Automatic annotation (TrEMBL):
GO biological process: fatty acid biosynthetic process; lipid A biosynthetic process
Full protein name: 3-hydroxyacyl-[acyl-carrier-protein] dehydratase FabZ
Compartment(s): Cytoplasm
Primary gene name: fabZ
Species whose genome carries this gene: Ligilactobacillus hayakitensis DSM 18933 = JCM 14209
EC number assigned by the record: 4.2.1.59
Catalytic site positions: 50
């Protein structure tokens, strides 16, 4: 059972169609971890060009999906409520498995460090129990209207 649905997620993060990739949040431990789900479907717009007759989810969009799940974890922290999390850096990204239509991405995010306006998380995108992608992401958190 989902603890956050797509509408609740869009109430928290600024992403919208066609680049809101989180379908629901499965588990959330505030300040520590989140598990979220992205159902990869053939009607995703990027599959038209990546690649015809061999649809593969682009690695950069897997990172974006992980970043969206991570921003939910960060923005659920009381001190960051109502703010926006901006991706600041990607470290040690590794792509281990191709993601295709029909796959279900389980996004596992663990908080590593949190300071006054930033957070660092370890992430894993998992398909059928196998790691598709891992990366360390750093976020800068700012007021929604603030230009950074």
């Amino acid at each position: 059972m989902a603890i956050m649905d797509a509408q609740e997620i869009m109430d928290m993060i600024p992403n919208r169609y066609p680049i809101c990739y989180i379908d629901y949040v499965d588990e959330l431990t505030t300040g520590k971890s989140v598990i979220a789900t992205k159902n990869v479907t053939i009607n995703e717009s990027f599959f038209r060009g990546h690649f015809p007759n061999n649809p593969v989810m682009p690695g950069v969009l897997i990172i974006e999906t992980l970043a969206q799940a991570a921003s939910i974890l960060i923005l659920k922290s009381p001190e960051f409520e109502g703010k926006t999390a901006y991706l600041g850096s990607v470290k040690n990204a590794k792509f281990r498995k191709v993601v295709r239509p029909g796959d279900v991405l389980k996004l596992h995010i663990e908080m590593v460090k949190k300071k006054e306006n930033m957070g660092i998380v370890e992430t894993q995108a998992i398909v059928n129990g196998k790691k598709a992608c891992t990366a360390e992401l750093m976020f800068v958190v700012a007021d929604r209207d603030e230009k950074i």
